[in-house]
Amino acid sequence: MDLLENFEALPIEVQTLINSFGDDFTYDNCNLLLTKLKPLGYSFEYGLDATPYNLVKVLCKNDFDDIVTDGDVFRCVFGAIDF
User: Which of 68, 69, 76, 77 could be 56's S-S partner, Cβ–Cβ 3.0 to 4.6 Å?
Assistant: First the structure.
């Protein structure tokens, strides 16, 4: 679930940080926002148009430093194992 679609439910600190970037996103802005959101426990993706999407709460990181979200809890607990 993309948390950007339910923006008002995000913690105020996260909302304020995202709002501080306005609507004029560039690759550099997206990268900077991502860097600032990670310590707060959030991550997102962005495409060629530099528009953030798929904001998720990060549950943990696995041994390969991959971000693990609620869709990948099994990988979080048992590592990055391909079956």
Answer: 69
What is the residue-level pLDDT of the chain in tens, covering all 83 positions? 789 899 999 999 999 999 999 888 899 999 999 999 988 989 999 999 999 999 988 866 554 455 555 554 444 444 443 33
- Say what the pTM is: 0.71
> How far is 42 from 11, CA to CA, in rounded Å?
11
Using alpha carbons only, how large is the chain's radius of gyration in Å? 14
Kindly state whether residue 16 falls inside one of the protein's structural domains.
Answer: yes
Residue-number span of the structural domain to which 70 is assigned: 3-78
Q: Is 83 a domain residue?
A: no
